[in-house]
Every structure is written in C-alpha cells, then in structure tokens.
Write a structure and sequence with these properties.
This protein is α+β, with helices and mostly antiparallel strands and about 120 residues long. The chain is about 30% helix and about 15% strand. The longest helix is centred in the N-terminal third of the chain and has 19 residues. The chain is globular, with a radius of gyration of 26 Å. This is PASTA domain-containing protein. Keywords: Signal.
Length: about 120
C-alpha cells in the first residue's frame, strides 16, 4: 500500500503535494510554451502586381495590414477592389509572426511608379 501525505505533512518533510490537475496544467503549459516558442508565422507571399483584394484573401485575418497610395496623390483607399499592389513590406518569404504588413498601391488602371 502506498501512503501519500497531506499538505502539512509533505511540507514538513520538504515535499510538494500536487494534484493531478496541477500536473496536467503544468504539462500543458510546458507543451504550449514549447510550441509557441518554436512556431514561426506564415511566410510573406508575393503580392506585388496583384489586386489588393487578393492580398486580403491570402494574408491571415490576424495580420495587421497598412495600405497607402504610392502614386503621390495621397488618396485614401476606400474600395480595395479598385486598387493593385505595387510595393510590399516585409519582403517575400519573410516570417510574418505578429508583424504588420505595409502595402503600397495604385488604382487598377494606373502603372506602378518606378522603384
């Protein structure tokens, strides 16, 4: 017969009394931490030359996307379907884990400015 000890008795013996729930929680925490630490975000896709709506479809919904007009006219992007991507940051293939994406756009009928 295996005899356990109560919290006070274990403390007096220099032991720590844990419940099964505490062990499971600690195990889950260590596994979650290991996965989160090793998990990389999705890579930045190639968006240059593609419709802005495509960028919103391809990027993860949690990704912060900043869009600005690169034509020099400082227009506001009100309807993404009318715009195409000319510039993107970060570069293609970069890890997106929690990083914002910046897209430079022009109207669909316009040409992208020279880089």
């Amino acid at each position: 017969m295996v005899r356990g000890c109560g919290a006070r008795e274990c403390a007096s013996r220099g032991r720590i009394a844990l419940t099964a729930g505490a062990v499971l929680a600690a195990t889950a925490l260590s596994v979650t931490t290991a996965v989160a630490a090793g998990a990389a975000g999705p890579p930045m896709p190639e968006l240059t030359g593609k419709p802005l709506m495509n960028a919103f479809r391809v990027l993860d919904y949690r990704t912060q996307v900043e869009v600005h007009d690169v034509s020099g006219d400082k227009r506001h992007v009100l309807w993404p379907g009318n715009w195409k991507v000319c510039e993107q940051k970060p570069e293609v293939g970069a890890d997106l884990a929690g990083k914002p994406v910046t897209l430079g756009v022009v109207k669909n009928a316009e040409k992208c400015p020279a880089a």
